[in-house]
Structure formats: C-alpha cells, structure tokens
Write a structure and sequence with these properties.
The protein is mainly alpha-helical. The chain has a domain at 7-44: Histone, subunit A (Orthogonal Bundle), CATH 1.10.20. Helices cover 37% and strands 0% of the residues. The chain contains 3 helices and no strands. The chain starts with 6 loop residues before the first helix and ends in a 21-residue tail after the last helix.
Length: 100
C-alpha cells in the first residue's frame, strides 16, 4: 500500500467534518480507511490499456416527457392545511439570525 492512514489523519478528517469520535471508534475508522486504500491499490493492479472510459452505465437513453406547465394545485388549496399562513404565503419560524 502506497500510503497508510494514521490516527492523526483520522483526527484531521474528523475535525474538517466537524465530527467527534471515541478512541475505539477512531480505531474502527482507521481500519476501514486503510481497507479502502488497500482496495484502491488492488484496483491499480488491473491492466486498463485499450479500455475505453465508461461514461454511462448503460446504453439506454433517458426518455423524458414534454414539460407542459399546468396548474395542479391552487394557492388556496396549498395553504388550506398550513399551520401558519397569511393571505398569500406559508409562515415559517426564523432560522437565520442576522445579528451575527
């Protein structure tokens, strides 16, 4: 294996992802990450000369329907069961504090 993951790298990745792990969980993650690298090394052993790059998984074409606008739900029907609303809009709690 070209590179091996160590606990320091696991800590750095956890910090970047804003995650916290126990020491035993770190050991499991370390083992899993090293197994992934081992798998990639195994794939690197394959001879891929004269192999065309795979762009799509199948030769099937995606057939889409025509996009025809239509009114399926009126504004009044959409607001009918809303827990909080005014005459035209849904009301939701504030999620962003602009004072920061």
């Amino acid at each position: 294996m070209a590179n091996k993951i160590d606990i320091k790298t696991v800590d750095e990745v956890a910090h970047l992802a804003r995650l916290e792990f126990t020491d035993s969980a770190k050991e499991e993650i370390l083992n899993d990450m090293n197994r992934m690298l081992g798998f990639i090394d195994k794939l690197n052993e394959l001879n891929t000369d004269n192999i065309e790059p795979l762009i799509y998984m199948t030769n099937e074409k995606n057939i889409l329907r025509d996009d025809i606008p239509e009114i399926t739900l009126t504004q009044k029907e959409a607001l009918k069961n809303a827990p909080k609303k005014d005459s035209d809009y849904f009301k939701a709690p504030k999620v962003i504090d602009q004072n920061n």
